[in-house]
Amino acid sequence: MSENRPRLLDPHFVSKLARLDLTARLVVEGFLTGLHRSPYHGFSVEFAEHRQYMPGDPLRHLDWKVLAKSDRKYIKQYEEETNLRAMILVDTSASMGYGSHGITKLDYSRQLAAALAYLMLRQNDAVGMFAFAAGQGEQIPPRSTMGHVRPLLLLLERLTPGGTTNFAASLHSLAERMTRRGLVVILSDLLDEPDRIEQAIHHFRHRKHEVLVFHVLDPQEVSFNFEREAVYVDMESGERVTTRPQELRPDYRARVGEWRDRIRQYCIEKNAGYVPLTTDQPYDRALLEYLSKRARLL
Amino acid sequence: MPVFSFLNPAFLWALPAAAIPIVIHLLSRRRLPEVSFPTTQFLRDLEPQEIRRLRLREILLLILRTLAILLLVLAFARPSLTPHNTVAHSAAAVAILIDDSESMAALEEQARPRIEIAKERAAAILEAARPGDEISIATSTRPDANGAGHTTDRVRLKRALERVEATSLPAKMAAAILEARRALQRSRLQARELYVISDLQRANFAPEVRAEIAAAAGAGVRIYLVPLVQGRLPNHAFQDVDPQLRPGPEGRGLELRARLANHADAPSDRVAIRVRRGDALIGGGDITLRSDEVRWVSMPLDWRGAPDAAGSAGPVILESDQDALPADDRWYAALGAPRSLRVLRIAEARDGTPPPRFAALALDPGGDGTGGFTAETGTPASLLSLSRSRTDVVLLEDVASLSADAEAKLRTFLRDGGGLVVALGPHSDPDYYSAHLFQGLIDLALEGTEQAAEGAPFELKARIPGHDVLEGITVGVGSTLTQSRLTALIRGRVTSPRTEIVVQTTGGLPVVATAPGVGVFLSSFSDDWGDLPYSGAFVPLVRGLVSHAARASKTSSTGSLKVGEPPVARLLAAPGAAVLVRGPEGYASQAAIESEGTAYRGVADTPALRPGFYVFESGGKTLATVAVNVDPIESDLAPIQTDSLLMAPRGMGPAAAATAATAAPGPAPAGRIAVLSSANALATHLQDTRRGRELWVTFLLAAAIALALELAVGSARTLRT
């Protein structure tokens, strides 16, 4: 990331802003400002305005009538219209409540989900949301109006960590309910049995959904940079393991690496997107990944 | 079983400190912080392979830390191990035998006499004694005079030790060890130790001494040899002086002969000799000796004066440059009146031919006695009128045998102090000499004539260079004596160590054998059996034999008196009153008078303890002056190899064998004799046996090793991270 990256993309900064709607908007605007000329300015059937032709613009959008009349080249711009239906899945299990440096995985996921929703709605995509944990979930069906952002953000603000991650139960039921083909964005630490995660992804893919997995982890989960010997308590199962981090660190890192590689490999096989994230990383990477995925869908 | 104990048991109170690492470990475990973590799934997976290894390492570290503290505490408590074969736990009877012989006056490093070092060692033993130990101090020169009998009185023992000084006497090691053993066996204490503190002179440790050591060990006494020196100090020494003054070269002036030895592994420097008579310096000379060489040296004397009434020329003192042992660099000599040796040569004419005169010419070529010898020739019948007053030495030259009367006369002559030289030859009857004449004179058995092989005549080699028979011939051990050869000789066999073979053939057949007052040449003095009479060695050989016979005879024995023996003087007339003997350092003794042939013999009642002149007086009149000197055996400062003392010799001495037979049965001597060759070794031994072997160094090292291992295990863990 460049040093002049907007602060609005910095999770620490954003987490200090109280209002999710504001922060989501700020994130997206900041993200879009950082982009060059946007290739995502919509091209739809509803005319919006003219602008001067610039070399490289597709000739099919050239307004031939104006050219014939005035011998000037103008491009017709349209309000974008899309049929993309996206469902953002946010893991609210107890393990998502972990944060080693002031921001929990759930906070990070919440903010990222809000930004994604805002970005999607801004692009006239229909966005729904599903918060899941321990086989249960709260769902908001997708809509594409900007006014739909409010219930989404309200849901996100309500989320609290609790229960266990149960991919199989939660996601399978959702997959069954999603009748129209769309984009499924998963924000989770994926702390479940890898087989179950794979089954859930497979289920979505089987029903022709596009899947984009944001694998959100805390930096400590990856690096295990604890110093002292301590009793480590599993936030979901309550299991206690006494260990000495400096002794186990290399093996731990290797194990976590293997685990992430396995999921990544599966996602590649299933043509699903996989984005490993840690909560100290800026959001722009996630947003870029989303846009890249969307571009492939349209 | 070895006994383990602590010399500083108070430190054992600190043993609970070894629990500190365990306590810290337990406390740290109890206070472990709890950390919420999203999942312990990966930690749990690692548990079987990693955590168990960590636990093991943790336990290992805990053990090492605990062990280090434990060993440290034990080291401070001074652990001590007492071997089962020591006397640490029971009082012991301890005999300290200090060698106070003349050699103990030899100066070691920083000019310290050996006796001082010996006293230091003895003091260390006294110092280490525990209450109840019974200790005695004895000396090697006077075993019967026990310095301090077995006692527990330390003050008395220390005083006795202070009184010990190096004497001028030779060591009587066998007797001293025997006496010490008997004293120990009288003790009621069962643990018995004998410390022999000595320079362990090789000459003083004859097989009988080793047998006594073995006997004492066999009787249950633990013997500790405490040698004071490891190497041989070079030392030259007077060994003898010929009391008979001789005419000087070509009959001019007088000549004194002294025998010196160089007891060293290297040649000596030039040794200057001075001869003093009273305060006047009357002669001197110098000599350079090879390694271990013994040689006679002749010195011209500026002599004035007449023989005294006893036929003595007077006392002189010979001094040489002082070296390691000053006592043997001075020699006292009571010289006889200067005159020629009178030789009666007995030879037989055969077939009307007079006997060859080679020997007579060798002794007195001018016939006037100016060569130091007068030679008169006679037949065996001449012996019937033999008189000691007219003859000093009889030379039998190729005499077949003697009549009984002649032999009886000859024996009387020899008892009166005369000397005998026998030169055999083709006509000598070996059986007669072996069975008759040699009996009581020389232990030599003759076995018949031995002819040299054709073309391989006998070659003569010196077996004892420096022997007085060879004084006129410079020759080394095994060197050829002369270019001439012998074609035959009488085969002889020496039957006791008292008889010496001075010259032998290359094949080892004796040619010249000697005993005190007697010399035998086993070939011929004529040219019947070779060309010896024509060689340059013939004259000094004949003269050497005659001189030896004369010197070793009783008339000239005054020069060979040694300290430790009672002074003896030959008196020409019976004293009218009691005879008193006076000597150096206030020596005074009565003397017993014995008849000896035609003369008398005075023997002092008390042994001489110091070298010097001893004067026999009667009624205020001096009867005789004799010289007493240190025993030359003490001059060779070479120590014996201590290894040879650790085992019993093959043949035990008679005394040792007898005492060993009556001794209490005990374990085999092996292991009962030990050598403590340095002050440190003695100190360690005393520490081990009196207080046990201290192990604190071992424990400290073990603690250090435990700490080092702890560091290694700990750092291995750090490296892994």
Question: How is this structure best described in words?
Answer:
The complex is a heterodimer of chains A (298) and B (721). Chain A has 298 residues and is of the alpha/beta class. Chain A has two domains: 11-35 and 83-297, 3-Layer(aba) Sandwich (Rossmann fold), CATH 3.40.50; 44-78, no CATH class. Helices cover 41% and strands 22% of the residues of chain A. Chain A has helices at 11-15, 20-34, 64-70, 105-122, 149-158, 167-177, 194-206, 219-223, 245-269, 284-297; strands at 46-52, 74-79, 85-91, 126-133, 136-143, 183-188, 210-217, 230-234, 240-243, 273-278. Chain B is of the alpha/beta class and 721 residues long. Helices cover 26% and strands 29% of the residues of chain B. In chain B, the strands form seven sheets. In chain B, strands 17-16-18-19-25-24-23-21 form an eight-stranded mixed β-sheet, with helices on both faces. In chain B, strands 26-32-31-28-29-30-27 form a seven-stranded mixed β-sheet, with no helix packed on it. In chain B, helix 3 (114-127) runs antiparallel to helix 4 (154-163). The radius of gyration of chain B is 37 Å and the shape is elongated. The relative contact order of chain B is 0.13. The model of chain B is unreliable at 554-559, 649-668 and 717-721 (pLDDT under 50). The chains are: A alpha/beta (298), B alpha/beta (721). Chain A binds chain B through residues 95-96, 98, 105, 189, 191, 218, 221, 226, 228-237, 239-244, 246-252, 255-256, 259, and chain B through 28, 32-47, 50-51, 54, 717, 720-721. Chain A: Residues 83-254 form the VWFA domain. Chain A: This is DUF58 domain-containing protein. Chain A: InterPro entries: DUF58, VWF_A, vWFA_dom_sf.
